[in-house]
Amino acid sequence: MKANNDMPKKKKENDKKKAPKPERVSFKGFWTENFSKEAIVGKWTAYRDSFKGDSDEAKKVRKTAVTKSVLISVAVLLSLLSAMSGEILAVQFGSNNGKMADVMSAGKAVYAWNDNIDELRQYTGGEEEIYDPNADVMLKVPFFSQKDYPTGCELVSTSMLLAKYGVKITAEEIVTKGYIKTKEVYLDKYGDPYGPDPNMTFIGDPLEENGFGCYSGAIVSALKKILPKSDYEVVDLTGLELEDICREYVDRGIPVLYWGSLQMEPLYYDIVNHWYIDEGKRKGEEFKWISNEHCMVLIGHNKDNYIFNDPSVDKAGAEYIRPLVEKRFKELGRQSVAIVSLK
User: Regarding predicted confidence, which is higher, 110 or 343?
Assistant: First the structure.
């Protein structure tokens, strides 16, 4: 059989070409080549000459240089503005103010100027740094008793909340001036009970022992009628947990209406306290009133308790233990309302 001379021959190991050893560069040579006076002058001359002429390469170099110059100028300007803002804040609040350092260290933008550092903190977005459930927080909110309104805790608490913002209106005026309507439960010709939706109407008479009350929706509607939209925002917080309410509102100086039970006693349902709703979207729906329902103003907290302006007691600052407050709050559907000043 004839040998195939086209087959590749296996190279011997010693036939392989050896790679040349890399040339060692001394530090002195590297420095001379890149950082000596002659090297720097040469590089600068080459860079300067690259700007000259009408070639595409020269035009590209010039365009790139202009862009870099603009970006550098913008960066320098922003740095100067940032430094000026920091100096203004230091003058406004005091350069040795430790709280100010806490705010600035959060690395957040500041959107408000105020002589109260605690109010400034709310605009930094640093919620995690602001809220401490074990801290002692208690807001100053005018206190009113409900002794003249046996079942009008929602209206009295609303008066306290409004007084915080300088709006003076009594529980009675909230009704007589038409900000909230009242209506009794009644029997139809078949003897079936009918009545209003507590999220739309105050049920019963707040001056009578046998009245019922109302829920957050009715108070939200009343507040929106009382307060000018340009100055205040009425916020229905229903559904939020108490810890979130404290973090986002109470700890930022904003008291909150809270629905729970009378002095945290158990809530219960009396079978006679039910009716069919005769108004609104829930018309025809059976409603069961939960007895011992109560409304008050949440004004603070500490390690063990939440603190309230409770109109059923004789002074501000009633304290109730945290787990029980949270339990009653949940049982009443986590209803709460706040007023946020836009001024």
Answer: 343
